[in-house]
Structures are given as structure tokens and as C-alpha cells.
Amino acid sequence: MILSSIILFSVAASLGLYLAVLGVRYHRSSLKVGLSHASIGLLALVLLFLQISSGAINKYNNVAALLMVLAVIGGLMLFALREQKKPPPMVLVGIHAVMAFVGLLVLFLGFGN
User: Fold this and answer.
1) Which of 7, 23, 42, 93 holds its CA 20 to 30 A away from the CA of 76?
2) Element of type H or E holding 98
3) How much is the pLDDT for 101?
4) From CA 87, how far away is CA 22, in angstroms rounded?
């Protein structure tokens, strides 16, 4: 289940990178891609929580889940501050991306152990 979560988080990260490029280069965003990014990320988070609740205690998974929850909160803030035809605040995008990326790295480290 952790491998599925890692793959889904990676797909969500790829979509998030595409959204960031749209915001920086073309000064716009895509609601459909953003909702797909969020849906895939939330599905991965649910799988991670299922693994945490049913499996043995793994500190890596717990730390990754905490970072991903913080990234979700940042993503919700980005969605709440969204304006039509305007790029999102790139500082918030950066914070959201860093938290999610570090969470994904922690998941990778935990998967190897």
C-alpha cells in the first residue's frame, strides 16, 4: 500500500509541477488540473493513513503523513485564495511544494527501511 501511495504522490507532484510552470511562465492556472492534482494527492494520503492505521509503527510514514497534511492545508489555502485568470501566490506554492516534496522523500526513505 505504501508503494501505491508513493506512486500516487509522485503523479500528484508531476501535476503540481505542471501547475507551477503554468503559474510562473504563463501567469494563469488550470482548475481541472488543480482539482486532479488535489484528488490524486488526497487519495494517496488516504492510502497512507490506511497503512499507518493497519500496519506496524513506522516513524517515516508518520512524519511523511504529517508533512502531507500540512501540504494539504497549504493547498486548501491556495484554493481559497484563488482568483480567476491570475496565478496563485508563488510564495504559498513554494511552501506547499517543499512540504509535499520533503514528505515524499521521507516516504521513499521509509520504504527502503
Assistant:
1) 7
2) helix 90-112
3) 96
4) 8
* Helix (H), strand (E) at residue 42: helix 31-54
Task: Tell me the one-letter amino acid at 2.
Answer: I
57-106 pLDDT, tens digit per residue, is 889 999 999 999 999 999 999 888 887 777 778 899 999 999 999 999 99
- In whole angstroms, give the CA distance from residue 67 to residue 102: 7
Grid coordinates given for 28: 494563469
Q: How many CB atoms are located within 10 Å of the residue 79 CB?
A: 13
Intra-chain end-to-end CA distance of the chain, in Å: 15
94 grid coordinates: 513554494
CB of 93 within 8 A of CB of 76?
Answer: no
Please check whether residue 88 is in contact with residue 78, taking contact to mean a CB–CB distance below 8 angstroms. Answer: yes
Higher-pLDDT residue of 83, 41: 41
